[in-house]
Amino acid sequence: DAVRAKTGTAIALINAAYPQAGIRKGPITSRMLLEVLPSENTLVTMKLSGTQIKRILGRTVMSLSGIRVKLDVTKPEGKRLISARLQDGTPIRDKDLYTVTTNDFLLMAGDGHTEFADGIHVEDTGILMRDALAEHIARLGTVAPRLDGRIQVSR
Fold this sequence. Notes:
Elements: H1 2-7, E1 11-14, H2 30-36, E2 42-49, H3 50-57, E3 63-65, E4 67-72, E5 81-86, E6 97-103, H4 104-107, E7 120-128, H5 129-140, E8 151-154
Parallel strand pairs: 1-6, 4-8
Antiparallel strand pairs: 1-3, 2-6, 2-7, 4-5
């Protein structure tokens, strides 16, 4: 949510943070954020079609915002997406264009995500993901993990 709030796009699709690192209960420090997001990834905005977004979501579970997905992890890669809807419940339509925030690693086909390179109106904002997260946490004051159903997985 932090990167989408920073850039104002409808959707954010980001590779998951370093899985072994976590944010412990208590004050959040810059050092903790560096452990969770050790790369110097910058935020990139673009427009992607619904088809492109669905292709990305059908491959792997990602950190996402502004969108709700249902996945079937028993299906082969590329076929896992059951449904994708905007946060307000509107279905993602194949031919519609959506504003998306990702990072420069994924733009350069990181983790095999070549779809981001086909985006239009691509702009590297120069904003570090870590800085966007720090700013978001500072604005909220208190943060707590919660499951909100934006990713539903069936097995």
